[in-house]
Amino acid sequence: MCPYFYFSINARNLRFAYTMIFAIEEINNSTELLPDINLGYQIHDSCAAVPVAVQSAFQLSNGGDNVYYKDNNCSQSGMMAGVVAESGSTPSIAISRVIGSFDIPQVSHIATCACLSDKKQYPNFFRTVPSDAFQAVVLAKLVKHFGWTWIGAICSDSDYGNNGMASFLQAAEKEGICVEFSEAFHRTQPHKIQKVADFIRRSTAKVIVSFTATGEMKVLFEELATKPSPSRQWIGSEAWITDPNLLRFTFCEGAIGYAIPKSDIPEVASSPLHVCNGSEDLQKVPNDFVQSSPLRMSTLVYKAVYAIAHAIHIVVCTERNFTKNCDKQLMMESKQVTALKKVNFTHNGYSVSFDANGDTVAVYELVNWQKDESGNIEVLTVGYYDASLPKNKEFHMNRNITWMDGKQEVPKSVCTDSCPAGTHRVLQKGKPICCYDCIPCPEGEISNTTDSLDCFLCPIEFWPNAVKDSCHPKPVEFLSINETLAIILAVFSVGGACLAILTAAVFFHHRTTPIVRANNSELSFLLLFSLTLCFLCSLTFIGAPTEWSCKLRHAAFGITFVLCISCVLGKTIVVLMAFKATLPGSNITKWFGPPQQRLTVMFFTFVQILICTVWLVVRPPFPMKNFSTYKEKIILECALGSAIGFWAVLGYIGLLAVFCFVLAVLARKLPDNFNEAKFITFSMLIFCAVWLTFIPAYVSSPGKFTVAVEIFAILASSFGLIMCLFAPKCFIILCQPEKNTKKYVMNKK
C-alpha cells in the first residue's frame, strides 16, 4: 500500500514485477547460470512518487531483514546484489543517488533520461532501454525525413520529459527544424494542461512532437477531446506511443513514433495467471496486464534481471576443467558494478551488453496508429532503427504509413512554403529561420534551387531568363544587314552613289557645254568621285564589326569627306579668284590655276591621311563587346581606340567645312549668273548643321543606333552637297538647255 497516495493498480508495472519473478525463477532453475545458487528478491512499490522511491532505496541499502529465508537456499548475508528500478527517470535518479553511495548496481528497464549516462554522477547506473540521447536524434531525423520544418513540441515536466526534449530540440536545430512552441506540463496541473491544449489548437504547425509519459498524454488527450481541434500529426516517444490505454483517442489516428521492439519471452504470458480466480475471460480483460501479443517493455525487465545475474556469476563463479564452481558464501561487496561493465551475453535471442556509459545499443521499431476493419486503432510496426548498423543504413521501412485523418499522403508542416527557383529567402523579423519571405532575385541574378539563401550573378555574357532560374547567353546586338533599318540605310547609300555616278555621267556627256566648263569640270568630277566614296563608305558601318572593318570605316569616312570638302573649298576659291580676275588690272588667275587647285586638294587630303595613319598605328579602333550600355544584351561595336584620334579626324573635317563656309559667305553677293557661291553656302550650311547635331546624337544614342546615327550623318551631308551643288546645274542641262549657252552664262546682272 502506498503511504502517501492512493492510486488504482498499474497493470503494466504489475506485469513488470511478475516478469522479474519469472526471470529469477528461470535463473534459479538454470544449471548454467549461478548453479547451486538461488536468487532472492524484494519488491517495493514506489507509487510513482519520488519520496516513496527514496524510502524504498534506503530500506534496500540498509539490507532489510538479515535473513530472507530460513532454509539453506539463500545466503544469510543482508548484502543487496542489485536493484532493478525504476519505471521512470526521475525516481531512478533519486534511487541511484541513494544506493550509489553503497556501490549497489542499478539496472533500469524504462529510465531513458540521457542525464543518467553521466558516470560521474551515476556510476552505478545501467539500463537495458536505449538512452533518450539516441531517441531524440532519431526523432529529429524522422521529422526531417518527412520534410517537416515547422513543429510544435510538448513534454512531461520531469527529468524524462525535460531532458529528452532538450536533446530533441538540440538535434532538431542541427537538422534545420524550427519549433513554433515548446511546452512542459504535469498531469497534476489542469490549468497548464488547458494552456498546452490551446497552444495545439491555435498552432499553425501540423506536427506535434510529444516527449511525455503516459499519464500526461492521457490527460492531454482527454482535454483535447472536450473541444474539437484541427487534425494534428502526432510524433510520440517510446513512453506512450504503444500504450493500449491511449488507443481509444481515435483523433490521433496516424500517430507515429519509436517504440521498444516487440519480443517474446517463453511462458511469461502464462506464468502470472495464478493471480486470477479462474472465472475471467482473458480476452475481455480491459488492461495490459494480460497480453496475448508480443511484449515490449517486459523484455527489458527480463534483460535487466539476467544482466545482474550474469554480473553475480562473474563475481562468485569460476570455471575449472569445464566445471563451474560458485561460492555463495563469498562477500561480493562492490564487485557487481565492475562486473556489470563486462556483461555481454545472448539469451533467448536477446543480446545484452553495456557501453562505457552503462547504455545499451539503441534498437527501435517505428510504429504507426492505424484503424483496423472495425474502426479500432491498432499499433502496427512500419519500420526499424538499429544503431549498430553502418551509417546511413540504420533506418529502414517495410510498410506504408497511414497519416492523420487516415490519409496516405504525407502531411505538410512548414512555416513558409518552399521558395521556388528564381527567388531567395529573406528571414522574417523576430521569427525562426524557417519563417521567411520569398523575394525575387535582383536584376541579373538567379537562383536555380528551391529555398535558396541567396541569388548569384550570371556570368558577364549571360542573362537570367524570365523566371530567373537559369542563365542564358545574352543576345548580341549590332546593325545587321538583315534589319529593316540597315536595309533602308544601305538602299539610300547605294542610291546616293548611283546618283553621284549618274550626275558625273551627265556632266561628262555635256562636258563641252558652257555651264560645265564654267564650274571647273575637273574639280566637279573629283567632287562627284569623292561623294560616291562618301555614300559607299557608309556601307562599311553595316554588319558585325571586325578588326579590319573597324579600321576601314573610320579611315574611309575621314579621308573621303576631307577629299569632298577640299574639292568644295577649291571650287569656292576658284569662284573668288575668277571674280577678282575680272577686275581691271588683275592677274590673280595665274596664281590659282589648275595645278594650284590640285595641290590644294592634295594637301588638305594628305593632312587627313596623316592623321588617320597615326591613329591607326598608335591606337586603332577595334571590335569590342559592350556590356555596360545594356545589362540584358551585348552591343558589338567598334571601340575608338584613341578618342583623340577620332575627334581629331572629325575636328579637321569640321575646320575645313567652317573655312569653306566662311569663304562661301564672303562670295554670296557676287553676280548670280557668274558664281555658285550661294549653292556652296547652302551646302556648307547643311553640312555643318548635320554634323553639329551629330555630336550629341552620337554620344546619346545607345547600341546599334550609334552606328545608324553616324551613317545618317554621312548620307545627309552627302545628299546635301550633291543636291545643292549639282542639282541646279543638272536641271539647267536637262530641262533648260536654252540657258546652257555662253551668252547666258556671261550675262551679268
Can you describe what's shown?
- There is one protein chain.
- With 749 residues, this protein is of the alpha/beta class.
- The protein folds into four domains: 11-60 and 80-129 and 294-348, 3-Layer(aba) Sandwich (Rossmann fold), CATH 3.40.50.2300; 132-263 and 362-406, Response regulator (Rossmann fold), CATH 3.40.50; 423-473; 484-582 and 589-746, Rhopdopsin 7-helix transmembrane proteins (Up-down Bundle), CATH 1.20.1070.
- The chain is 42% helix and 14% strand.
- The strands form eight sheets. Strands 5-4-6-7-8-13-14-15 form an eight-stranded mixed sheet, sandwiched between helices. A three-stranded parallel sheet has the order 1-2-3, with helices on both faces.
- GO terms for molecular function: G protein-coupled receptor activity.
- One of its GO terms (cellular component) is plasma membrane.
- It is found in: Cell membrane.
- It is a multi-pass membrane protein.
